[in-house]
Amino acid sequence: MTTPAPFALARSRLAARLPTRGSLVLAYKLLVNDRAKFVALLVGITFAVFLMVQMTSMFAGVLSRASSTVLNIGAKVWVMDPAVNTVANSIGMPDYVLDFARSIDGVRYAVPLYSAGALARLKDGTFQPVSVIGLDDGSLYGRPVLERGRIEDLYAENGFFVVHDAEFAKLGKPDIGTEFELNDHRAVIVGIAGVASSGLFGIPTLYTTYSRAQQYIPSTRFTTAYILIEPKSTADIPHIEREVARLGYRALTREEFIRRISSYYKYQTGLGTNILLMTVISFIVGLSISGQTFYTFIIENLEKFGALKAIGAKGRELVWMILFQATFVSLTGLGLGIGLCTLLIFAAKLRLPGYAAAITATNLLLAFGMVLVIAAISSYIGVRRVLRIEPFDIFRG
Amino acid sequence: MSAVAIAAQGLTKWFGAGDARTLAVRDVSFEVRLGEMLYIVGPSGSGKTTLLSMVSGILRPNAGTVQVGATDLWALDDDGIADFRLNKIGFVFQDYHLFPRLTTAENVAIPLILRGRPWDDAVGEGMKYLVAVGLEQRAGLPPVKLSGGEQQRVAIARAMVGRPDILILDEPTASLDGDTGRNIVAFIRSELLNEQRAIVIVTHDARIYEFAHRILNMEDGRLKGIIQGQASEQ
User: Fold this and answer.
1) CA gap B200, B205 in Å, rounded
2) Engineered SS bond to B171: which of A303, B3, B94, B195, CB 3.0-4.6 Å?
3) Which of A298, A395, A396 best tests the B interface by mutation, with the highest count of B CBs <10 A?
4) Shortest CA distance from B98: residue in chain A
5) Please, which residues have CB within 8 angstroms of residue A268's CB and are 6 or more apart in sequence?
6) What is the average pLDDT score of chain B?
7) Is pLDDT at A55 greater than 90 in this prediction?
8) Residues of chain A with a CB closer than 8 angstroms to some CB in chain B
9) What mean pLDDT, rounded, does chain A reach?
């Protein structure tokens, strides 16, 4: 079957506009064989990417840690006081809110969650702040996955699970049976739990039942920090949110709550602004170094590009060559920068298990986008100069 | 009588505008025939290089035409002129303009690479021309490691690799000593000139006049006369 003539014509026209493989190899060799410039370009972009990814990863790590309780508990809908911005700063709700939540159409079940800080006194007499999560006695809804121990042991006298996260060692690397005191109450570790994410504040986390948490920790008038709701279906969630709002409280899905916490840290703590500033500075540094070096590279090779033009290269072929050079060096720098950042975070986590940094897809996309901008601006300057050079300037020397 | 390779008619070129306007070439007409080695000579600033640029598709004239075979060169669009230079003309620039980051063989292959030939294929073809100019032992070296005469021969190999109909050389002996210059031009005359090719050389160097068929003498942008070269009498 032959290709219809109009398509063949369009294809040949397109092929004429695309660079040949040979011209790209030529561009590659001209770039890479100029070792000093190539290394300077790579160092500039790698350093910029490293800084950008490192900054945004630290921020992503902080945000992820800030939402660790929400992630670890895993409830689909959280009910809270409207003033709550972060998990740690919960505001107690009266019991009628729980009763009301249970009465809403579309709620399969609703349970209370206790969340507070306390001081643990270890066997050696030292004190260690801890975070205590009290799970609903009847269902233990939101319980962590146990690495060791049995879930029913949480009902045993003085029973607590300890989370095996980066802060675990601060409790003296406890084992099942390890005892300590919580507000002068005897507490016993009955299980070691694994969680998806460690907390932000660098303190160990303990799980127990709601009633034991109330009993052990001095409480305010209302003790329900959150109400966790399992809806009958996802379609019921908007209705649940509306009903809870009618009562003067706020119901959020897990994702909405995480976004709310992230927004708080981004916009109300100064953390987001500082990270944004650092990222922009890294971008400017990268752009300055690589843009200037690439410009120098083009200027030094201007005569050569002119010679290519005189020999018969078309303007668009030279544009392709410059774009290829800028893209190649930028993507190589991107890879090296990400690799360097990954290595540093890995090394830091070996030494500091609680180091909060996480390379996310969003960070990588952001770095990729910024590197593309660096490549585009650098090559734009080069392309302008190369398109302006006349073969006659080369010819007359 | 050989066919006409280039027919230039009424070529005029000026630079600048208003009071700053300088007339570089004034109403110059001439022909170059296949199998002919034509020199354009004259003092500095006489318009030799400008004239050569106009007949080779480098510089658009303000007036006049250049006919190459059946093609009216300056009636072509920019892409057409670039294709013309790539396929019909071989250039040897005064400063050679070799690429210091490429090997000698890769430098020679550039016109073929620009024509879309695969890299290895083009470099392989370039090697044949390096053999022709006696530099096969230098194929893997960068041009900066070569002497001036060797660089000139690399530039000639690069100009020849595309088998152009017209070979244009701008001051080919300017940076060479007397013997090397003569040897290079003798090599061009004996090895590269044939009945399917015309060679146009711009030069000041009277020591190589003996190789020319005809010599165009330029002065103040005008063609002052055409001298029959010694070569045409041989």
Assistant:
1) 14
2) B94
3) A395
4) A304
5) A85
6) 89
7) no
8) 20-23, 25-26, 29-30, 33-34, 303-304, 306-315, 317, 390-392, 394-397
9) 87
Nearest to A208 by CA among A91, A294, A114, A109: A114
Contact yes or no for A308 and B58 at CB 8 A: no
> How close B187 comes to chain A (CA, Å)?
22
> Could you list the residue range(s) of the whole structural domain that residue B162 is in?
36-49+77-233
For the cut 60, the answer to whether the pLDDT of residue A3 exceeds it is no
Answer whether A97's CB lies under 8 Å from A227's CB: yes
- The maximal CA–CA distance of chain A, rounded, in angstroms, is 96
Q: What is the pLDDT of residue B9?
A: 94
A contacts of B89 (beta carbons < 8 Å): 312
Segment A67-81 mean pLDDT:
87
Domain count, chain B: 1
Banded pLDDT at B231 (limits 50, 70, 90): low
Q: Give chain A positions within 8 Å (CB) of B87.
A: 312
Interface test with A, best of B22, B46, B91, B203 (most A CBs within 10 A): B91
Contact of A309 with A393, CB cutoff 8 Å = no
DSSP secondary structure string for all residues of A13-27: HHHHHSPPHHHHHHH
Give ∠ CA A145-A147-A153 in degrees, rounded to 5. 75
Under an 8 A CB cutoff, do A312 and B53 touch? no
- Both tokens of residue A21? 């493989």
For range A285-299, the mean pLDDT? 82
Q: What is the CATH number of the domain that holds B148?
A: 3.40.50.300
Mutate to test the interface with B, among A13, A17, A21, A26 (most CBs of B within 10 A): A26
Is a pLDDT exceeding 80 seen at residue B134?
A: yes
Mean pLDDT, range B6-34, rounded to an integer: 92
Does residue B57 fall inside a structural domain?
A: no
pLDDT band at A271 (very low <50, low <70, confident <90, very high): confident
Q: Is residue A98 a contact partner of residue A82, using CB atoms and an 8 Å limit?
A: no
Q: Looking at the complex, report in whole angstroms how far the Cα of residue A39 sits from the nearest Cα belonging to chain B.
A: 15
Residues of chain A in contact with residue B106, where contact means CB-CB under 8 angstroms, are 29
Do the domain assignments include residue B140?
A: yes
Mean pLDDT of B39-50: 90
Which of A23, A34, A311 minimises the CB distance to B101?
Answer: A34
Q: What is the pTM of this model?
A: 0.76
pLDDT in tens, A134-156: 999 988 988 888 898 898 899 98
Calpha distance B58→B42 (Å, rounded): 20
